[in-house]
Amino acid sequence: MGESALAGIKVLEYCQMVSGPYCAKLMGDLGAEVIKIEKPRLGDEARRRGPFLSDIPHPETSGLFLYLNTSKLGITLNPGTPAGKNIFLALVKDADILIEDTTPGTMERLGLDYHTLSEINPSLIMTSITPYGQTGPYREYKAYHINIYHISGQANFTYSMPPTSKKKDHSQPPVRGGGYVGDYDAGLSGATAAIAALYRRNSGSSGQYIDISAEEALISLDRVDIGAFANDPSAGQRRKGMLGGLMACKDGYIVVVAPQQHQWEALVKLMGNPEWAHGEKCRDEISRVENADELQPLINKWMLQHTRDEIFHLGQSYSCPVGPVNSVEDVFRSAQYRERGFFVEIEHPVAGRQSYPTASYHFSESPLFASRAAPLLGEHNHEIYCGRLGCTEDELASMRNSGVI
């Protein structure tokens, strides 16, 4: 294999929790050198979020932090101090990409805005990830993942669906997407934009500033619904349910997608060609949609008589788009992911040897480098400050005692 895809690229991360760290992690796993900046003594807020190893809270054993910060060097720094600001500027001089997630206006108050930084490094690509972006009436609003997930419209898809109906139950509140799914979407958008800007810069252009709105990252995933409403506001009100979807089966849940004629025919074969499936109400897609309330319970009844594996494997043999709803344990123990090497074991000095999910892509010539464990708080202070910036041991101790690092 050749060198990694982002070998030689240097990324500076000044972020907490999920979106920014995930953005930097994606680049780090692709071979970029990522230096993560954390608050002195406190570190990233994710260090205090579970799950924790053995359910014992510890800043070095948060599963969330350990996953989000593989492939990174870690230092502590307070750029709000004069000495800390000078160190931040020195690090920026040598960086290709800076990722930050502070509230709009914070970097300007610190004297670390893009205009200032680009003067010392014209090639710098600065990516800011915030809840609502740098402009607009919401720019200074603060938000957690639950706020962004709902305000983006994503929760419209998470109203409960009664087993015998294809209509959403709006009498109950919608639920938030699991984990920090929306924050990961924002991080992915940031990484995509930063790598695109890097490609442009390496083709002869200068660096640039990238403004990422987490809300818009989620809205962009509503492509069909948002586009339909923008062109016809009544489209959502007229929509009726399609057959299939999420259904209970004998030992769990299964998902079937069968709106097209060939998919419906495969589903009919899967169910053993019941007589009702060949009637006038099932003649074509329009007829099936119009009669979904009557037909869906018949499909549900068949599913409840079979297991997930039976439905899945038989469905595959008929080319029916069907899949089991897996638990986390199902995924981890799956022969499919094991065969593809999706999980790797990484040794951490405190958390020990743990399995980590990696990436969905495999390069034939550019290996992933998801093998460095998340850094301990301030683990690489000596390496970066003394080894690269030329600080003495006494200066390092002085900065530590004064709260600069």
Structural class: alpha/beta
| Biggest sheet architecture | 6 strands, parallel
Instruction: Indicate the low-confidence ranges by residue numbers.
Output: none
Report the count of strand segments.
Answer: 11
SS strand fraction: 5-15%
Mean pLDDT: 91
Strand line-up of the largest beta sheet: 3-2-1-4-5-6
Provide the succession of SSEs. EHEHEHEHHEHHEHHHEEHHHHEHHEEHH
Please report the distance between the alpha carbons of the first and last residues. 39 Å
- Count up the helices: 18
Portion in helices: 25-40%
What Rg do the Cα atoms give? Answer: 25 Å
Give the overall form: elongated
Structure commentary:
By secondary structure, the chain is α/β, with parallel strands linked by helices. It has helices at residues 19-29, 63-68, 82-93, 106-109, 114-120, 145-151, 181-202, 214-219, 223-231, 235-238, 261-270, 285-290, 292-303, 308-317, 328-332, 335-339, 381-386, 393-401, and strands at 10-14, 33-38, 72-76, 97-100, 125-130, 209-213, 244-249, 252-257, 322-324, 343-348, 352-357. A six-stranded parallel β-sheet has the order 3-2-1-4-5-6. Helix 1 (19-29) packs across helix 7 (181-202). The chain is elongated. The mean pLDDT is 91.
